[in-house]
Write a structure and sequence with these properties.
With 125 residues, the chain is of the alpha+beta class. The protein is built from 4 helices and 4 strands. A hairpin with a 2-residue loop joins β3 and β4. It is elongated and about 55 Å long.
Length: 125
């Protein structure tokens, strides 16, 4: 697999990495004709996104989302920016797949740290 690094942010102890690769088994059945044409021509990309939480080179948690279609895959990691004001205007909670994937992966990584007594004593959650 050839993963493309889309975005990364780091804390003192952890790295959270968003990357993607071309979808291995694309399901184009949900796409309208325009989207299918753009994917098939290569103008848009059908990919699987992956969010990983890493501690000192060890992967603690991973989340995947497949069959995602973007003209620029970097947009996936930016969709959450500025979304809260729209939610307030609509009177609803708005989110993004990327933010949800990060939240889920970080929660799983925190659980993994809690389950490792030696690591738990050295790493703040």
């Amino acid at each position: 697999m050839n993963w493309y690094r889309v975005r990364e942010f780091n804390t003192r102890n952890f790295s959270v990495i968003l990357d993607c690769e071309p979808e291995q088994s694309p399901d184009l059945s949900w796409m309208d004709t325009e989207v299918k044409d753009k994917v098939e021509s290569g103008q848009w990309h059908c990919v699987t996104f992956r969010v990983r939480v890493i501690y000192r080179g060890h992967e603690l948690a991973t989340q995947y989302l497949g069959n995602s279609v973007y003209e620029d895959v970097r947009d996936f990691g930016r969709e959450h920016i500025g979304i809260r004001p729209y939610g307030r205007l609509l009177g609803a909670k708005c989110g993004s797949y990327y933010a949800d994937m990060v939240r889920t992966a970080v929660a799983a990584a925190r659980k993994a740290v809690r389950d490792m007594p030696r690591l738990r004593n050295r790493v703040p959650l």
